[in-house]
Amino acid sequence: MENRQVLLARRPSGRLAADDFSLVTGSLPEPAEGEALCRTILLSIDPANRAWMQGRTYRDQLDAGEVMAGFTISEVVDGNDTGLSRGTLVAGDGGWQDYAALPARRLRAVEPIGPLTHEMSVLGITGLTAYFGLLSVGRPQPGETVLVSAAAGATGNVVGQLARIHGCRVVGICGSDRKGRLLTDELGFDAAVSYRSDRFAEELRQACPQGVDVYFDNVGGPVLERTLGLLRERGRVVFCGAVAHYDGDDRTGGISFNPGRMVVRRLRLEGFLVSDFLPEWPSARTALAGWVEGGSLQVLEDVVDGLDAAPTALVGLLAGDNVGKRIVRVAPDPHDPERVLGGR
Amino acid sequence: MENRQVLLARRPSGRLAADDFSLVTGSLPEPAEGEALCRTILLSIDPANRAWMQGRTYRDQLDAGEVMAGFTISEVVDGNDTGLSRGTLVAGDGGWQDYAALPARRLRAVEPIGPLTHEMSVLGITGLTAYFGLLSVGRPQPGETVLVSAAAGATGNVVGQLARIHGCRVVGICGSDRKGRLLTDELGFDAAVSYRSDRFAEELRQACPQGVDVYFDNVGGPVLERTLGLLRERGRVVFCGAVAHYDGDDRTGGISFNPGRMVVRRLRLEGFLVSDFLPEWPSARTALAGWVEGGSLQVLEDVVDGLDAAPTALVGLLAGDNVGKRIVRVAPDPHDPERVLGGR
Description:
CATH topology of the largest domain in chain A: Rossmann fold
Oligomer: homodimer
Mean pLDDT of chain A: 93
Strand content of chain A: 25-35%
Radius of gyration of chain A: 20 Å
Helix content of chain A: 25-40%
Largest sheet of chain A: 7 strands, mixed
CATH class of the largest domain in chain A: Alpha Beta
CATH superfamily of the largest domain in chain A: NAD(P)-binding Rossmann-like Domain
């Protein structure tokens, strides 16, 4: 059996391009002691993938020649005495390849509540990030104004919908009028503003006439700077990501803020990682699944087929061409009834 | 009876100077309905006094020709049917003058635990600011490193001593080696660094070999920027003041920070005002008084005599020539036993 792998061929210079990657084919990896052999089914495409190329983050920097890293949902094909049974679904750090030998202690068993893709979108890291970032860090109160950037993106759309469910006025910042209409017409946002508009600053102020109580920041950069001026007394900024800073050579570029205003308005700016809330993941998943089931939380997914499509999927994500959670389907879901019944 | 008043003669241009003020003498104010006539005993000199001249903060901007604003401890000389008895000590916003007619509902009765000056330093707004900023906002744990700027100043010295009492490693940033020695030799700081040193960045890193868990910021500006890079995972910055931004024409100048680092290190940056914690003031005063009584919290005061000394006292404070809480004694304490026994 072959194992296709997408390598980071070179460290990107400036904006990431598809030819910064190369597709190679080798043999199946041999799992070492404590490792299981896993077949990739779904591959998560995330803005953070690009940040990993810039330097050390919460993981080591990715270097040229390495298999591109990425979060995966896989099926165990050989448990190799790790206690994992063949056929078990696991979430992990499998990377951009068909097969990976992964340490069992770093895998999390996946027991799908609905479609498997939901385990990577609304019930996976993406949805959990929105849940804890908004509710545990931002802590919005009913009637408050919640602003979210990259609002049509994987995390942003869930943040906005959760804020609506919690009785807030919800404003989304996105990159096109088409996405804006999706937010207001389909997902129940109160307003949407495109950061590409010539009148962005004015439109943002008009969309937030009372100012902003919670700003959920996925982008950093000029949008963040602009938003800091709109924060009300006791306003909060949840730092979830800084995609405006990822797709280039320099991740140290800062944004400017006024420390005196921090005091007078009693602002709180706070960053978080979803892994900080691991013990609370099960209860959050139950809550999220309940809202999905009840119809108040729509699931927005953007599924691309085939491992070879991963490079363009990431390049496009960084340019903002996705709507909702972008996932690469590397192999068919072994438990999908359609596949079993009809084949694909 | 005469009423001396110090006016803000003109809006300062650039750095504040003593001749931006003028001393005038008028007659006693007539209290309106709901107001009491109060005689100023102590006048608080605070960096924020300068910020009030720059624009609207938590109070209206001070304009040229107005009596300079300042926090006071006064004695009621005419209750004027407000329910306040003659002789009652009150804290309020009396300004730089011998007598003020003040709305009774905006006065707080002062019941001194020790010397009256303590009610303006360690047991007053200054000490309470240190207490709530450090313990309620910064929330340091034993063994953590707490860094404080303007560490020999009114709030800073209390912050450092409270952090020591709570089992932290304490590092102070101050403006001279003389102040640094006071912090380490007299107040129990583990280390002190002068921001005026040519080797400031290196000395700061050496003083915080494990990085910084809580940075209590009184200054803003380049010192704040430098410190952000030293924050450990889950590091916190308490924004209490930004004196580096006050003594000039432009208070909008910002400092630069990196939003990506906010996420990866899960930093929290939070501003506060001591008034946010009003219901908890009595219990905090009891705690602070206990530490003073027990000898673990030293009281650092810098008392200047006479209303006419107030302008140079503020100009000097902004240049950093004070040690501890700077207070102008406008009139003798009516309850001071020394005064009663020996006269002054």
